[in-house]
């Protein structure tokens, strides 16, 4: 089996690393089993495949944890340093998220806040001493009251888990897949590769739609409900947020990849199951079926695959190796699915209906040009919003 990146030698699979059998010295590339986007043995095709991931690393696996008590903050710092040395993106945040996750919290800040809440301040300890209970408080007890403000050491099991999980970003696994969940607006969604990890920009897209719904209200011919179509649901983040926030919304969401079926638990928990129809349809191949299924809608929302095909190789390894490229690849000029959504909008939108799209900064002009070049589409370009990064 060829090493898919360096193609230097044949390899044999071991537990975690794939070692090249003909290496004279340790190869600078480690292979991590289970990553979805890998070259097949001896081949070069991309796409979700079982197998191993090639990771550039000259340093090998991390050192075992130090044999002494470790608090959360120290674990975070140790891993932040290692992540920085190994080129892991956002080393501090990644380390904080994982350590907090192992300790059952969302963030390190919430752990600290919890500690502060539970512990007594110095003034409280002093007044306790001065009170009638003074005699009954030993010096050891006073020390432990003070120590309540300090962080607790992690148990051996927790430390092992931190080491196990923190090792994964060294192989460029995104932290969202490491902790297997991620927050999108007020929702916590399950995250498993290669389902697309929802981005903060998309939270803004949902915010824009919600703002529109607040100001506009339901269409005149359907006062009780609003129907929408989402193209490319991924984890379901967009549709679930909209349905959760807007009780009069009913949605159809389409997804080309795999069963197009998001985690049912949040659907049930949020009580939106009966307002969401999920279909596995490729809008490029099955536009007619999409139109049949959705009927007329008040709005269409989509964060489509919009990366220019030529830009794909420039993406970070975390994205390229773990997320499904079909969620990203918008074809030449990144417009393949965007154009199809506009065509679907021509037929499916009700009067005054709208299309909300997340796109590349180059797309607003391209979309306007494309609309000018088409006839009888009945669509009018309204406006472009920049996201929080100014793009
Ligand atoms: C950028 S991801 C967005 C996912 C999700 N809406 C979000 O914002 O997190 C694009 C999604 O579109 C889906 N997709 C790509 N091509 C499609 C097609 N031709 N028809 C339907 N869905 C498609 C991908 O599988 C992926 O889930």
From TrEMBL:
Q: Which Gene3D superfamilies match?
A: DNA helicase RuvA subunit, C-terminal domain, Vaccinia Virus protein VP39
UniProt cross-references to InterPro entries, sorted A to Z: DNA_methylase_N6_adenine_CS, N5-glutamine_MTase, SAM-dependent_MTases_sf
Against PANTHER family, the record matches this protein to: HEMK METHYLTRANSFERASE, MTRF1L RELEASE FACTOR GLUTAMINE METHYLTRANSFERASE
Q: What is this protein called?
A: MTRF1L release factor glutamine methyltransferase-like isoform X3
